[in-house]
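fyi for ur records
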Amino acid sequence: MLGSFRVLDDRNKCPPWMIQQAAMEALDRGYDIINCSFGLSARKSTHVDHFKPWIDAAYRRGVHVVSACNNTCFRWPEWPGAFPSVIAVNLAATESEDVFFRWDAKADQPPGHLVEFAARGTNLELPWKGGRVVSGKSGSSFAAPHVAGLLARLLSVHPGLKPPVAKALLQEAAIPWEPGFGGG
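which gave:
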């Protein structure tokens, strides 16, 4: 099932409770993937109260959550991407349509962030309001749906994959990140 909920206003602002309502509605409708092309600062601890309930509900129901990360610095934690069960996506400065696995830590230490994936997200040509096309747009908000689409393809072949299994398969299928790809 495919659907869309608009929660951001014209200034890309939204109260966290509205995101929670939209996510719960998606869960109630039986969606398999929830793509969140946004993030709210995890530095504001009050936001977690609006994200944790539906992230946990999605995980328990086997629903996959994909989220964009901060465009300025992907290491800045944001909800919902800061939850380990969420597939957090950064933008990559590449022409490739591949998905990249971003585990840029040394082998003997954990990463300092939860953003594990990246996809093309810079200098894009996009359909826009009023049937127009705009060029030069960049952001992890455009990269996250790319990963959600790959996840949908994976689930079309292997329906019923639980979120941790699907995330592990995406890690194995993705191309290793190289610092030259740039991004946030």
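The longest strand covers residues 87-92. thats all i got for now
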